[in-house]
Write a structure and sequence with these properties.
Layout: E1 2-6, E2 12-17, E3 22-26, H1 29-34, E4 38-42, E5 46-51, E6 56-58, E7 65-69, E8 78-82, E9 88-93, E10 106-110
Parallel strand pairs: 3-10
Antiparallel strand pairs: 1-2, 2-5, 4-9, 6-7, 7-8, 8-9
């Protein structure tokens, strides 16, 4: 399925081709503070189509994910990283995807506090 996503102010918008039926709820310091629900997809499935402003990036701890956020509204719609096999991935904040039913997603809890 093709999803459209964006930051809150609309300065950054993208589309992603993915079958998203579940999301990860992590309790690490950034995910819990930001309220992320993440779905990981191949990096090539993410296509940017609006970048009115350059995205800002934030990494911490092991620097595995480069959290991308809009410098205008502060919304963080996705992160970029590499999976354990070395493939590029996008960590989508599914809360930033249009027309996704969050209540229909299977939520998997991940203990990121122990990984920090």
């Amino acid at each position: 399925m093709m999803y459209q996503g964006s930051c809150h102010c609309g300065a950054v918008a993208y589309q992603v081709e993915a079958d998203i039926s579940s999301a990860l709820s992590c309790n690490c310091s950034i995910c819990s503070r930001k309220g992320y629900l993440l779905a990981f997809v191949p990096g090539a499935s993410l296509t940017m189509f609006k970048t009115d402003v350059p995205l800002s990036s934030y990494t911490f701890n092991t620097h595995k994910i480069k959290h991308q956020f809009c410098p205008v509204c502060g919304c963080a719609p996705f992160g970029l990283g590499v999976d354990p096999e070395g493939h590029e991935v996008a960590a989508l904040n599914v809360r930033c995807l249009e027309e996704i039913d969050l209540d229909a997603l299977e939520i998997h809890k991940y203990d990121g506090k122990q990984s920090q």
